[in-house]
Amino acid sequence: MNAAVTLPDVSESGLTAEQVQERVHQGQTNEVNDKPSRSLASIIRSNVFTLFNGIIITAMIFVLLAGSWKDAVFGFVIIINTGIGIATELKAKHALDKLSILVASDYVVRRGGKNVDVPGERIVLGDTLWLGSGEQVPADGVIVQTWGLELDESMITGESRTVRKKAGDTVFSGSTVTAGVALVTVSAVGDHSYAATLTAQAKVYKKTVSDLNHGINTILKFMTVLVVPLCILLICTQMGTVGGWSEAIATGSWRHAVVSSVAGVVGMIPEGLVLLTSLNFALAAIRLARHNTLVQNLDSVETLARVDALNLDKTGTITDGGIQLDRVAPVEGARASDSDIRQALFDLANEQQPNATGRAVLEALGADHVSVGDVRTRVPFSSSRKWSAVAYDDSRWYLGAPEVLLAALDGDYHDVAAQVEQYAAQGNRVLLMVCDAHAAPQDFATNPGLDAQALPMAVVLCSERIRSDAESTLAWFREQGVRCRVISGDNPATVRAIASKVRLTGDREPRAMDARELPSDINQLAQVLEDVDVLGRVLPEQKKAIVQALHAKHHVVAMTGDGVNDALALKEADLGIAMGNAAPATKAVAEVVLVDSKFSHLPTVVARGRQVMANMERVASLFLVKTVYSALISFGVVLTAIPYPYLPRHITYIGALTIGAPAFILALAPNTRRYIPGFLTRVFQFALPCGAGIALAVLMTAWFIPAQMHWHVDSSAADLTQLRSICAMMLFILSIVVLARVARPLNSWRGLLVLAFAAVGVTGACIPFVAHFFALVIPTGSLMWTALIALGYGVVIFTLCLLVVPRLFPYGMRLVSRWRSVKKR
Q1: CATH number at residue 483
Q2: Which residue ranges does UniProt annotate as crossing the membrane (predicted)?
Q3: What is the pLDDT of residues 590-599, one digit of tens each?
Q4: Distance (Å, whole) CA 545 – CA 572
Q5: Position 104 confidence tier, pLDDT thresholds 50, 70, 90
């Protein structure tokens, strides 16, 4: 409302300027702290100050001190990747902050005897506030005067019907004015309002449980325990290969030992996996932002993939909150013509401040060219009477609650009552039109009562306006195996009728239940919910209990809502989804906000989450293979005291072409497979056989080629360079095979991706500058045949590992389970 709008004259003067300043000084304002997105400092901190970045940077410094800057390239790659990660998350932050900016509404308050515009957050305790049609109540208050005020309190109660208010009644923040005007004294602001009190529990911080992050953190914890002692052992072993500590320090050979040790350490660090995870989450958030979907917690993108139960709030999700006129059905034996009925209905709805039902009638009949009739007298709708009326020269017409009007009439109208009950059971809002053809209009002002001789003329059927995209969206969820339930504060019959219209359960009729009949025990409730599709008369506390009951059945639950009454359930759910027009408190606790309130965005949201998780599983498998073979090769080097079979620059070259760049492409590929728990187990099932096969193949090459060529540990640097080149060749070829297994199926662009990176790797080794920089030597003469033989038995060893190790995996998992059970004791 704007101060320029004509408002009723009142004697209330409101607070003085001094009183307002005093309350502002005391902090008694309506200011609400919006949930901020991640800060710049936290983004930099999370990307830079990680354990493995510390290890990598330390290793790079040691290599630089050893004077081999070419082998320190891996460190610069990490710096570049971290920069990309920061830049991407900052872009995501910018996109999310831009979406989360809410347009501040101004309200008209009485201050110093004048009406002034004040932003919602500047309203203070004790202010005298004007409320008008279309406005959301910004703070709790008590009505001083009212001119036909009606409120939609569904944000608070979940009940979508409007409520007529009178002087002395309390209004709660989050309610919406649907009709009329009122003057209200503000009784509670900010954190002390009813909405804030109801959502106090929801404000407690809840960390999103991420199966992906849990799996990656488990890998990182394991690597933390493994890397440090193995690094020390590697340094000691490599010092031995150059003649021992004393000679190494005296001759400067320690430099070669340090470089060799770093090769093992760098290979074991899945640094790109952590980076790519946050990068993928950030990119998903950016893409969703383009669809007007705000992801307030990046980790929640992963939760999207696991959802198998979706609880839908009816109002604002399936319906858009508006009312529509469906039809006007004359009762049997009605004596008025259809045109007379429609004219009277239009005039009855055409009040000065029509409510939502009145506006729906005016819109529908106006589209059919019905215009204002010759009304002599009008009786506005009253919540105490439950009807409104208009008088013409020759008749009076009434519109109101069927049970109230029928009770006032003489005669047997059971057939009309049955008709009304049948329509109501189908989910309609039913009003009754009654006509008194024997009353004079001049008597109407003094005697507005209903003559018992009046006759029923027509039943008016209205319903909530269903979103055009609701049916197709629900069909998508059914196809994807996500069980949808509608949970509402409305009458179960009404909710079931709407659920049936949008084919919530497909061809089957939805099964409805009154929430007042639900058991309080969570386990019993969980059992009941398995056979229920629609719940009506649900209280806010019950919505939370319903989510808890679904959790008891091991479901991953998403919950949509827009009202304050939904906040606790949204917080309890694995994924809370708020509509853009939701109460601020509800949006604050939700992980995802559909900014434009379009239900049809949900499939995109869920599909994006599935893409992230399915692709990250591929990528994690790729990275973990490198970790496994690096760790096993390092153990083999320590046990047999041989020089490390390749250099850090080798692993940089091979890792970039077989893991880093392909992983980035694969992580962004389309994928709609629903995520199934067990991320870590599946990744290890893939990585262990592949990693073990590569490690054994490389170690066999490092052990047997020197023996066949009569080399020794202290052989010439040229011999060691050739050996390392052959081992690097073995590593590259088998890594390409692993990439091909991860990228399957190969009968598409994925096959071309594998071939492209294989070709780039081979071509690079043939370019003199690249070959020299990365110390790649193509074997010639007899050494070529030796290399080919080594590659042959390397492929055989790799294949055997793929066949044998998976058979041993279940036994290993049993040992791990037993160890965990012993540890718990």
Answers
A1: 3.40.50.1000
A2: 48-66, 72-90, 222-245, 257-283, 619-644, 650-671, 683-703, 723-740, 752-778, 784-805
A3: 888 888 888 8
A4: 9
A5: very low
Say if residues 628 and 756 touch (Cβ distance below 8 Å).
no
Does the residue 94 lie in any domain?
Answer: no
Question: In the listed set 415, 450, 465, which residue is the last one of a domain according to the structure?
Answer: 465
1 inside domain: no
Q: For 534-565, how does the pLDDT look when each residue is reduced to its tens digit (9 = 90+)?
A: 998 888 778 889 999 999 998 989 998 877 66
Q: How many CB atoms lie within 10 A of CB 600?
A: 16
Q: Which of 683, 690, 692, 686 is nearest to 620 (CA)?
A: 683
- The token pair at 69 is 């800057």
Q: How many helices and strands in the chain, by DSSP H and E?
A: 29, 21
Q: How many CA atoms lie within 13 A of 146 on its CB side?
A: 21
- The dihedral built from the CA positions of residue 570, 571, 574 and 575, taken in this order, carries a sign that is positive
Do residues 444 and 534 share a domain?
no
CA distance linking residue 81 with residue 53, whole number of Å: 11
Q: Please, what is the end-to-end C-alpha distance for the chain in angstroms?
A: 66
Residue 362 lies in a domain: yes
Token duo for residue 554: 């091991």
What is the C-alpha separation between 471 and 640, in angstroms, rounded? 67
**551/806 Cα distance (integer angstroms):** 33
CA dihedral 572, 578, 582, 583 (to 10 degrees): 30
pLDDT at 344: 93
What are the residues whose beta carbons fall under 8 Å from the beta carbon of 31, sequence distance 6 or more?
Answer: 121, 122, 190
Q: Is 609 exposed, middle or buried (0-12, 13-18, 19+ CB in 10 A)?
A: buried
Q: DSSP class of residue 315?
A: B
Task: For the chain, give the longest Cα–Cα distance.
Answer: 124
Q: Under the phi-then-psi rule, with left for phi > 0, alpha for psi from -120 to 50, and beta for the rest, what region is 252? A: left
**How many CB atoms are closer than 10 A to CB 429?**
21
> Which residue in 313, 490, 533, 566 is the catalytic one?
313
The sign one gets for the Cα dihedral 792, 795, 800, 803 is negative
From the list 246, 1, 241, the residue with the least C-alpha distance to 105 is 1
Q: Do 346 and 454 fall into the same domain?
A: yes
Distance between CA atoms of residues 392 and 84, nearest Å: 75
Q: Are residues 172 and 23 in the same domain?
A: yes
Note whether 438 and 487 are same-domain residues. no
Residue 139's CATH number? 2.70.150.10
> DSSP string spanning 38-76?
--HHHHHHHHHS-HHHHHHHHHHHHHHHTT-GGGGHHHH
367 and 406 housed in the same domain: yes
- Residue 558 sits at φ, ψ, to 5 deg, of -110, 145
Average pLDDT across the chain, whole number: 81
Give the residue-averaged pLDDT of 164-177. 85
Angle formed by the axes of helices 211-241 and 679-708, to 10°?
20
Beta strand 592-594 pairing with 377-382 = unpaired
Distance between CA atoms of 784 and 429, rounded to whole angstroms? Answer: 86
Peptide bond into 745 cis (omega under 30): yes
Q: Which of 138, 169, 198 is the last residue of a domain?
A: 198
Strand bridging mode 106-111 / 128-132 = antiparallel
- Domain range enclosing 447: 323-465
* Long-range CB contacts for residues 370-376, cutoff 8 Å, separation at least 24: 370/342, 370/343, 370/346, 371/346, 372/346, 372/347, 373/343, 373/344, 373/346, 373/347, 375/347, 376/441, 376/444
pLDDT digits (tens, 9 = 90+) for 358-407: 889 999 998 888 888 888 888 887 766 788 898 888 888 999 989 889 98
Tokens for 546, please give them.
């319903």
393 counts as catalytic? no
Q: Which helix (DSSP H) or strand (DSSP E) does residue 798 occupy?
A: helix 782-824
Is the C-alpha dihedral spanning 772, 774, 778, 783 positive or negative? positive
> Total structural domains in the chain?
3
DSSP state of 750: H
For residue 427, the surrounding DSSP H or E stretch is: none
Rounded Cα–Cα distance for residues 772 and 585 (Å): 62
Q: Are residues 508 and 473 in the same domain?
A: yes
Q: What is the pTM of this model?
A: 0.66
